[in-house]
């Protein structure tokens, strides 16, 4: 139970919402500047000025310029949705349900920003390196969640192969989405995971 007085609790929520709003604004202005000036030509100082914050405030939200592109909240959202799936579903069915739940709830503007960030990742070598590290962490988190669901160790070869296959499928679909903005991301992800579930018949 919280030790805060009940009338103080809304203030904590408000503070968190303000932080989230500032973080989103920094990313929004950064993407605009990257689009207008190019990634390498845009400085942290310019991003901070556009977002009407100080450079020191920028670094409270993002440790580097690269992090503005690479940071998102999708891992915790996906994991929460995965844990909420019915127990009788197979791990892959649970992942499909979780992915559908998360993506269906994203505003169009956020999906557009995600696509733009993916474009930058594909174009900027140092961002590709950071993405590999992020994917490794996503695989680790997903392996822990899947292992818990099936009663195995996260290092079990079957669990690791499962999570690796999922990340491969997701990456393929994201790269296709960058090339074809009219593509239905959710439908394409679900179709690809359905093929995985069917044993990738060719």
What report would you give on this structure?
The chain has 202 residues and is mainly α. The protein folds into two domains: 6-64, Homeodomain-like (Arc Repressor Mutant, subunit A, Orthogonal Bundle), CATH 1.10.10; 72-197, Tetracycline Repressor, domain 2. 75% of the residues lie in helices and 0% in strands. The chain has ten helices and no strands. The longest helix has 29 residues, at 9-37. The model is unreliable at 1-10 (pLDDT under 50).
Features:
mainly alpha, about 200 residues, 2 domains, Arc Repressor Mutant, subunit A, Tetracycline Repressor, domain 2
Uncertain segments are: 1-10
Name the helicity range.
over 70%
Shape: globular
CATH class of the largest domain: Mainly Alpha
In total, how many domains does the architecture comprise? 2
Largest sheet: none
* Element-level helix/strand string: HHHHHHHHHH
- Overall SS class: mainly alpha
* Radius of gyration using CA atoms only: 19 Å
Beta-strand content bin: under 5%
DSSP strand tally: 0
Distance between the termini: 55 Å
Total count of helical runs of at least 4 residues: 10
Enter the CATH topology name of the largest domain: Tetracycline Repressor, domain 2
| Average of pLDDT | 92
CATH superfamily of the largest domain: Tetracycline Repressor, domain 2
CATH architecture of the largest domain: Orthogonal Bundle
